[in-house]
Design brief:
Strand order of the largest sheet: 1-3-2
Number of strands: 8
CATH architecture of the largest domain: 2-Layer Sandwich
CATH topology of the largest domain: Beta Polymerase, domain 2
CATH class of the largest domain: Alpha Beta
Radius of gyration: 18 Å
Length: about 210
């Protein structure tokens, strides 16, 4: 069991799948660790390390859905190939105060949504190197999220289907606006064929060109 704890501690995002461990019968050991409150089964085949001070069979600790989404995607593809996106990126930038029931994260291949212990995880197929990303911290470790500029543009698009209310989307955009570099967002929009989207964003924010 100690080997599993050590391996999870070494990971940038402390989530792994059973086949990540070079031991016999990892599923059996993970069940034991789950029962004693050292790891949490996030979803079928995904396990997260519970912070040391919160461990125990009755601790009841769960991560944020943003940490879970990023950790699960990283367990599949590596932490430097995935990023929080859309509403989850807005949350990572502290540009929306309320918890969400769905987590959005990119993946290099198409994946179906997964139900987790903290909500539904939706994977958005997107190449990592075609996004503008920045480092963020989650309760399961550091990773990537789309920049405030990229996030605002993404939220103004109708695809993927952001399952949030229009008022929540507008609130995110208003909070992101205070952090946007308008020169940078113009460059991103031009590179991603998003100039019309940028126009919609400006219209929503009623913001004049600086």
């Amino acid at each position: 069991m100690a080997q599993i704890i050590e391996e999870l501690n070494r990971r940038q995002l402390r989530v792994a799948r059973p086949d990540s461990f070079d031991i016999s019968r990892p599923d059996t050991e993970l069940r034991r660790l789950t029962d004693n409150g050292s790891v949490l089964q996030l979803s079928k085949g995904f396990y997260a390390l519970i912070p040391e001070g919160r461990r125990g069979p009755d601790a009841g600790w769960i991560p944020t859905i943003e940490g879970a989404a990023l950790g699960m995607a990283a367990a599949l593809y590596g932490s430097d190939s995935v990023a929080l996106i859309g509403p989850s990126a807005a949350r990572a930038h502290r540009c929306y105060p309320r918890a969400l029931g769905t987590g959005y994260v990119t993946a290099p291949a198409r994946l179906r949504p997964r139900q987790s212990a903290v909500g539904n995880i939706r994977f958005v197929t997107r190449e990592f190197n075609k996004m503008d990303t920045v480092r963020v911290e989650t309760d399961l470790g550091p990773g990537w999220a789309t920049s405030p500029e990229q996030t605002a543009l993404d939220l103004c698009r109708n695809r993927p289907d952001w399952r949030i209310s229009e008022s929540a989307r507008n609130e995110m955009l208003q909070m992101l606006a205070a952090r946007i570099d308008w020169e940078l967002i113009g460059e991103i929009a031009e590179q991603t064929r998003g100039l019309k989207t940028l126009g919609r964003l400006r219209s929503k924010l009623d913001t004049e060109t600086p």
